[in-house]
Amino acid sequence: TAPIRLRDYRRPDWSVEAIELEIDLGIDSTEVTSRITLHGDPAKAEPLRLDGEELELLTISLDGRALNAEDYRYEKGVLEVSDAHGGSVLETRVRVQPAANTTLEGLYLSGSREHGFLLTQCEAEGFRHITFFPDRPDVLARFTVTLRADRERFPVLLAGGNPAGSGTLADGRHWAKFVDPHPKPCYLFALVAGRLENIQRDYLTADGREVKLVIWSEANVIDRCHYALDALERCMRWDEHKYGRNYDLDVFHVVATHDFNMGAMENKGLNIFNAKYLLADPDSSTDEEYRAVEAVVAHEYFHNWTGNRVTCRDWFQLSLKEGLTVFREQQFSADMNSLPLKRIEDVALLRRTQFPEDAGPLAHPVRPAEYREINNFYTATVYEKGSELVRMIAGRLGQEGFRRGMDLYFERHDGQAATIEHFLSALGDANRIDLTPYLAWYAQAGTPRLHAKGEYDSARREYTLTLSQQTRPTPGQPEKTPLPIPVKLSLFDRSGTMLPLHLQGDAQVDGTERVIVLDKPSQRFVFKHVSAPPVPSLLRGFSAPVVLECDYSPEELALLLTHDADGFNRWEAGQQLAMLAFDTSHDGNDSAACKAWCDALAALFTLQTIDDALLADLLTPPGEIEFADRQSEVDPAKIHAQRQSLQHRLAERIGVSDLLARYRLLSTDSHAQLEAASQAKRRLKRRVLELLVLLDADQAHELAAKQYDSASGMTDRLAALSVLVRTNATQASAALAHFRERYADNPLALDKWFTVQAQVPGDAALAIVQRLENDPAFTLKNPNRARSLFGAFASTNPSGFHRTDGAGYALIAERLAQLDALNPQIAARLATAFNGWQRLEPVRRSAARLALEGLAQREGLSPNLSEIVSNVLQ
Ligand code: HT7
Ligand code: ZN
User: Fold this and answer.
1) What is the pLDDT of residues 424-472, one digit of tens each?
2) What single string gives the DSSP state of each residue in 357-405?
3) How far apart are CA 139 and CA 37, in angstroms?
4) Contact assessment for residue 820 and residue 862, using Cβ atoms and an 8 Å cutoff
5) Domain Peptidase M1 alanyl aminopeptidase C-terminal: where (predicted)?
6) From the alpha carbon of 303, which atom of ligand 1 is closest?
7) Cα angle at 471 between 465 and 476, to 5 degrees?
8) CB 464 within 8 A of CB 454
9) Cα separations (Å) of 626 from 549, 580, 629?
10) What's the confidence (pLDDT) of residue 511?
């Protein structure tokens, strides 16, 4: 298929003022009657063309007149109708088959035929699987929806908008009607029908609206929805306070399902969540999962303004809603928890997922110029890098300026389908600043390298910082332009004190931290009155999504690791130092960097003045994927071994007795509590155990087994299980068997059981995965379960997946083909695990190529999987 291009965008010839849907729900067969009131000028317009995929057309009429075969044509996903004009009402009746739909797009069944429920997923182009419509985000219509179904089988009927009546029908059936007063694109349509329980709460918005907040789930898990309801209330208040945004309907429904392709969906008034991001309880959720629930609830809620009230003109603008909403969620989570810890978590995620994407064959701009399958563009680049772009711009405007800009954005574009240009214009106009130079960030793929070189002139007491930037070519973009890169910085003296900054050209001293902007290939910045060679702390808080290259000495990095007041940069100095240690330690010889890293961390460990959670993060070197990202020829087994040896050095330097003493101290806490201090203790305790096992496996295994048995919450239990399983302890099998039985009826917990085993490092992993895929609880049909095993293996276990014999690749290629026949979206996403294969060492590289080429040649691959496989192979 030909790609769809941004530059070919045309306004729609036809729009839809209103749509009335009447849906007769059944598991095997559902009939959808749609009446759309058209708006358009047929004199100028192309004939009316509506999208519709695999719909069984039962009847069709225009302005009350049944159409004959010559009046319309339905083929290849398009319904063309000849005689429509502005004001025409087109009525169609179609049949769809929810139970047979394994793609989890459109209308489908979650759970079993007997007990499951029906639901929809329409973003990006799922509505065309339900009825005929111009399935594009710039067609906004008023939705009226009537649902009809058997009352016994489907006692709960929900759709987006406000409730507008319900009643009884003959033959045990009933109906419910919903009217959405806010025009919306069809990707925000949703319905849910089945046997569901709820918890609810009244909420009064700041502008005086009484809203019912209702969370729905299957009966057996409704008790695990309370945390999400609390989180929802928190984020609603926060959005009122921080952005002046109020909720705008009388009800807000949220529904949990175990069968979902992504994390959650922001359908207007009826959010639908992957249960993984809605359910939480201490017995089966880790601290990290609690935070994820809070974050995803907030993300979806924030979409009500950034995505729903102001939506996207076309799917190229996806980051307009996603990048901005990720940013808003990151701000919220930082406010609710800890700013530096959240920043560390987000930057680590960016480096693990987005940097490799930007450095390989799948690289694309935050606003792609073309796509074949839009579902393949819900990427780390659009989401995470997109958020970093908003953060840079927000930093440029300052807190008040950004709020002013956002207010203007909402004022100008409420009820519209907007573009990234609209967003930048509103932010810029509100602050009289030209933000158009930032558009280049949206258009250019690849991670810029920021090179920094400092020179000290003792005679003039000047420090000159030369910054330069370079972005490597990416597919289809051989040439790169310089971007505006805001660099937040401070200078430290050798005792670790921050220096006042006298930047040449500035009228006066500007504190001890400031932002300088590099917007040329190279620029010099001169700092005056500097009495001794300083240590620069650059890119503080990760002020731009770039790779910083700076020739720091180990001592300089150790100084920042010990003294930097910016928690993020402190962690960053440790990461850079660990990288240096990794690069310079060979054959068991400790380099100066390795020594400096271990010494600095051991000192911080002993001091006990640092927050437990931050200390846990400081004690964690970059992950294997991050190490691989810096190498031109990658040997994942070697990287794993080298990283292990680095951690071994650190453990030795701290010493068994200090580690043990700290472990015992941390074990005295009551572990089921959610308070930040308790969470921090659990995080550090896990890290200490992971270091201890490198020094004294037997003793650590005993402690882990005890921790597993006595754990009062999932965080401690899973940490212990993971240490036992990954280090092949004799106690592992008993713990695994216990876990398997204890959580037999809890799919989310069981997913963790699959994952922890799929992450066993090295060649042992493959046989484990092969055994587990034959477990009766394993199924490819459920995305969470498929991800918990194959996703964990292929995307998070490099030393397990990348075997020299290619058996990991062969297995995944085979399963991709099977998965593709069921659910192309999930198959395509899993296939991105092959990203970066071109940089593997030659033996693995040819094995990976063989597997990919074999997959590419298979008949009948979906457009989703074909696009990823062919792009990865480039
Ligand atoms: N906006 C939502 C995207 C989404 C999605 C996209 C493609 C296929 C299935 C999907 N489910 C949800 C999620 C979000 O970013 O909030
Ligand atoms: Zn989103």
Assistant:
1) 999 999 999 999 999 999 999 999 999 999 999 999 999 999 999 999 9
2) HHTSTT---SS-SEES-GGGG--HIIIIIHHHHHHHHHHHHHHHHHHHH
3) 12
4) yes
5) 555-873
6) 16
7) 165
8) yes
9) 15, 13, 5
10) 93
Residue 787, phi then psi, degrees to nearest 5: -65, -35
The residue behind tokens 């930082």 is: 334
Distance of CA 559 to the CA centre of its chain: 34
Q: Which residues, 6+ apart, have CB-to-CB distance to 638 below 8 Å? A: none
**Do the bridges between strand 449-457 and strand 547-550 make them parallel or antiparallel, or are there none, so unpaired?**
parallel
Among candidate residues 452, 439, 446, 454, the one with its CA nearest the CA of residue 484: 439
Q: Give distance in angstroms: CA of 382 to centre of ligand 2.
A: 10
CA of 187 to the centre of ligand 1 (A): 10
Contact 38, 87 (CB under 8 A): yes
Sign of torsion over alpha carbons 147, 153, 155, 157: negative
Q: In this predicted model, what pLDDT tens digit does every residue of 350-372 receive, in sequence order?
A: 999 999 999 999 999 999 999 99
Nearest ligand, CA 264 = 1
| pLDDT above 80: residue 45 | no
Cβ atoms of residues 36 and 19 within 8 Å: yes
Q: What gap in Å lies between CA 214 and CA 253, rounded to an integer?
A: 5
Calculate mean pLDDT across residues 547-566. 96
Task: Report d(CA 108, CA 118) in Å as an integer.
Answer: 6
CA of 274 to the centre of ligand 2 (A): 13
Query: What per-residue string of b and e applies to 43-79 under the rule 16 or more CB within 10 Å gives b?
Result: eebeebbbbbbebeeeebebeeeebeeebbebeeeeb
Ligand 1 residue neighbourhood (C-beta within 6 Å)? 121, 123-124, 261-262, 264-266, 299-300, 303, 322, 375, 378, 825
Question: Which among 758, 770, 763 is positioned nearest to 844, based on CA atoms?
Answer: 763
- Averaged pLDDT for residues 189-201: 99
Structural domains present in the chain: 1-195 (2.60.40.1730), 311-443 (1.10.390.10), 450-544 (2.60.40.1840), 746-874 (1.25.50.10)
pTM: 0.98
The residues annotated as belonging to the active site are 300
Average pLDDT over residues 13-19: 97
Cα of 261 vs centre of ligand 1, distance in Å, is 8
Percent of the chain with pLDDT over 70: 99
Residues 6+ apart with CB under 8 A from 127: 51, 106, 133, 135, 186, 187, 189
> Exposed, middle or buried by CB within 10 Å (0-12, 13-18, 19+), for 761?
buried
Q: Supply the pLDDT for residue 1.
A: 82
Alpha-carbon span 731 to 748, nearest angstrom: 23
Distance (Å, whole) CA 56 – CA 36: 18
In 3-state terms, what secondary structure has residue 93?
strand
Q: List C-alpha distances in Å: 129 to 100, 124, 307, 318.
A: 13, 11, 22, 21
Instruction: Please state the φ and ψ torsions of residue 788, each to the nearest 5 degrees.
Output: -65, -25
The CA dihedral of 829, 835, 837, 840, to the nearest 10 degrees, is -120
Neighbours of ion ligand 2 (CB under 5 A): 322, 325
Tell me the backbone φ, ψ of residue 310, rounded to 5 degrees.
Answer: -110, 110
First to last CA, the chain: 17
The answer to whether residues 755 and 731 touch, using CB atoms and an 8 Å cutoff, is: no
- The β-bridge relationship of strands 251-257 and 210-217 is parallel
Residue 175 CA to residue 488 CA, distance in Å, equals 58
Residue 100 tokens read as 């047979």
Tokens 């005086």 belong to which residue? Answer: 208
Are the C-beta atoms of 122 and 267 separated by less than 8 Å? yes
